[in-house]
Amino acid sequence: MKITALTSCCADFFPEQDQIYVGGNSLNFATQCKQSGIEDVSVIGGIGHDEFGRLISDHLKKAEINHRHLYTIAEPTASNKIYVNEAGDRYFNADSWQGGAFDAFRLSENDWKLVEESDLIAMPGGDPNLEALLHRRHDDQLVVIDFLDYLALDFIEQHIANIDIVFLSGKEESLVKLQALSSQYGKMIVTTLGAKGSIAFYDGKTYNQQAIEVAEVVDTTGCGDAFQAAFSINWLQLKDISKAMQAGAEAASKVLSFMGGVA
Length: 263
Known about the structure:
Low-confidence stretches: none
Strand order of the largest sheet: 5-4-1-10-11-12-13-14-15
Number of strands: 15
Helix content: 25-40%
Number of helices: 9
Radius of gyration: 17 Å
Structural class: alpha/beta
Mean pLDDT: 95
Strand content: 25-35%
Order of helices and strands: EEEHEHEEEEEHHEHEHEHEEEHH
């Protein structure tokens, strides 16, 4: 199995704790894939000529993730200021996200060759390369897109025809619309609901998964990425949604025990 994650690698700042960790959807997703036992995992993207870029490169090297397609460009490494409340839930301010190299990076033809050879491709919905990926993908590839918690349903509907699994951090009031969207387009939609677990809609059926309780919730950063990676791998291998959701829940629960998105 060959997995490629595009193109979000960033530095996660925790101002209240005065700590910095490597993160980003793609880095977190790729790391979970390696921890799940997948050998051939790659990250494509851009970082800056700065200390944060070096931290990201060092992490990918240590995790034995292919980063030959991670480029140092003339933009600062993307960063995100993350705040954590007493319950361990994260929140953001208006100026938290600084896109930098993530916003500027575009794949080259050499990068697209790696993507074309991949069995599973993961990307956040806000990626500036999204349109190109959905246009260039092959039918025999599994393409999973994380629409997070800030992209509107009409934006998801605009792109869903060329996506195999839609992930998002949902709200209970949106579940009816998500179920209808899944039925209309025949696509799998998986929404995580924090402590309330996760729900998947596919082929006219609804699947529920309880969150796995942990002794202490330290930080929820990266839980969704870990869930998505474990779910996607399991689904690609077994085509069993219930088992995939269980695998995702187990992976997510482990991330709750430490600060940052990856150990």
